[in-house]
């Protein structure tokens, strides 16, 4: 039997920083819970509660939840609607696929004046004649029943035929209660026979918690008489288990709260039996994470993606571990050592060796609320001195540079600014250029060579040389 504990509620309150006193919504579905307890004392501000797919037989301990607006109890073992008078603001109640056969118990919901939606699909009372008319007449505040809107004409018609409908419902309810009483008697008789003989229950009942006692006794006797005979014992055990499972599942039975509960217990017992056999069998050798020489192995048992970044600028390692988004943080265990980092994810090891030593005391870890990733920051032990970046120095123009104009051009690009107020006549640019070019151009005659040279010959046809 699974109990509602404080640790369980805190695990389910991760979205509220694990605080339960201010919790407004909680989901406890598929937890194999057999009783509602404690939530009316620990979580008084609850507005939405999910209890679907459990083994709850009775509605209880929710009357103090004054702010409760939505209660989901689908797929449970509830047979009667009760103890909801204190839920003053209850707007929606889901009892899909339960065992509500006393349809008259819906009258207890008259005090819930804000109730607008009710689901009773899959219950025995759903098969009653005039079921819908009776519920509409008893609960006039309803606007939706089993996902169908209730019109004004439906309410008027249900109220007009209510005396006849009520008598019909009472008769069908009496027949169901008589049938249910016989089912309980058969269940009790089958359990007594099973306790006396140690055999499987008779028909009309699914199982008993001790249904596999005969199988366990037979296995123990076989081991004592024959010892460990290898494959023969294993084959015999598998044959007996298959026979018991076949006999269990093929026997006809009624669908009752007791049979559903016993089915769950049978499956749980068989699961524990298999785990016990595995524990007695050959165990896998324990994985070696660090050798005797101190060598660290890289291990990724959960098979999750990761990224290790060497942040040289900040002198640290950054590990981004892609942990499952909806994984509870209580299932994570992080251990940072000088030469490696180890993270346990649901009991599976993720280990990564580091190239340099880090400071475990200065390391930090964060988890993203959107992606669920873990971000580990691990500062290095050895500090790295990095050279500062040299600023670009523009070389000064050198007086010895034969081309100062080229140096000036490489340093900066100068732009010519033109005064827009002045009009420039571009038609005379060419003429002015020619005049400017011809103006300063002068022809200089070279000095006459000395005539005292005996080899000199003056040729008048040769033009004078320009200086």
Care to describe what's here?
This protein is α/β, with parallel strands linked by helices and 467 residues long. It is 30% helix and 13% strand. It contains ten helices and 15 strands. It has helices at 6-12, 39-42, 131-138, 152-160, 162-197, 213-226, 231-250, 257-280, 404-411, 429-438; strands spanning 25-27, 48-50, 70-72, 92-94, 117-119, 144-145, 148-149, 299-300, 306-311, 316-321, 332-336, 340-345, 348-353, 364-367, 374-379. The chain has a seven-stranded mixed beta sheet, covered by helices on one side. Helix 3 (131-138) links the parallel strand 5 and strand 6. Helix 3 (131-138) packs across helix 4 (152-160), helix 3 (131-138) packs across helix 5 and helix 6 (213-226) packs antiparallel against helix 7 (231-250). It is elongated. The protein starts with 5 loop residues before the first helix and ends in a 29-residue tail after the last helix.
Compact summary:
With 467 residues, the protein is of the alpha/beta class. The protein is 30% helix and 13% strand. It has helices spanning 6-12, 39-42, 131-138, 152-160, 162-197, 213-226, 231-250, 257-280, 404-411, 429-438; strands at residues 25-27, 48-50, 70-72, 92-94, 117-119, 144-145, 148-149, 299-300, 306-311, 316-321, 332-336, 340-345, 348-353, 364-367, 374-379.
């Amino acid at each position: 039997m699974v109990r509602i504990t404080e640790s369980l509620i805190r695990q389910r309150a991760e979205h509220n920083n694990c605080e339960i006193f201010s919790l407004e919504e909680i989901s406890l579905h598929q937890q194999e819970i057999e009783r509602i307890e404690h939530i009316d004392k620990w979580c008084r501000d609850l507005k939405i509660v999910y209890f679907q797919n459990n083994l709850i037989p009775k509605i209880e301990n929710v009357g103090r939840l004054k702010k409760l607006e939505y209660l989901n109890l689908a797929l449970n073992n509830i047979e009667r609607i009760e103890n909801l008078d204190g839920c003053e603001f209850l707007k929606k109640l889901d009892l899909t696929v339960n065992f509500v056969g006393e349809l008259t118990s819906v009258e207890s919901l008259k005090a819930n004046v804000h109730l607008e939606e009710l689901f009773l699909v899959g219950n025995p009372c759903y098969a009653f004649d005039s079921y819908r008319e009776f519920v509409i007449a008893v609960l006039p505040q309803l606007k939706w029943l089993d996902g169908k809107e209730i019109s004004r004409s439906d309410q008027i018609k249900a109220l007009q035929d209510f005396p006849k409908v009520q008598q019909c419902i009472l008769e069908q309810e009496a027949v169901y209660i008589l049938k249910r009483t016989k089912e309980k008697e058969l269940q009790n008789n089958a359990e007594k026979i099973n306790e006396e003989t140690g055999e499987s229950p008779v028909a009309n009942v699914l199982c008993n918690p001790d249904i596999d006692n005969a199988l366990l006794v037979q296995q123990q006797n076989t081991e004592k008489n024959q010892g460990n005979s290898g494959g023969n014992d294993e084959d015999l055990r598998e044959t007996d288990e298959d026979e018991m499972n076949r006999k269990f599942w093929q026997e006809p039975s009624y669908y009752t709260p007791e049979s559903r509960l016993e089915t769950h217990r049978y499956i749980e017992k068989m699961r524990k039996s298999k785990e016990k056999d595995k524990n007695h069998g050959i165990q896998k050798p324990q994985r070696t994470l660090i050798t005797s020489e101190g060598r660290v192995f890289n291990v990724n048992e959960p098979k999750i993606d990761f990224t290790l970044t060497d942040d040289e600028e900040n002198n640290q390692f950054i590990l981004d571990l892609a942990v499952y988004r909806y994984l509870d943080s209580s299932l994570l265990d992080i251990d940072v050592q000088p030469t490696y980092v180890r993270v346990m994810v649901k009991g599976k090891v993720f280990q990564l060796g580091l190239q340099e030593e880090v400071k475990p005391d200065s390391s930090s870890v964060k988890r993203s609320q959107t992606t669920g990733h873990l971000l580990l920051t691990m500062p290095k032990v050895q500090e790295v001195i990095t050279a500062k970046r040299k600023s670009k120095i523009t070389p000064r123009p050198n007086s010895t540079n034969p081309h100062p104009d080229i140096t000036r051009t490489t340093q900066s690009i100068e732009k010519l600014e033109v005064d827009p107020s002045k009009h420039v006549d571009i038609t005379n640019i060419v003429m002015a250029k020619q005049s400017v070019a011809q103006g300063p151009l002068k022809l200089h005659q070279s000095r006459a060579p000395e005539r005292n040279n005996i080899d000199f010959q003056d040729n008048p046809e040769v033009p004078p040389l320009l200086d």
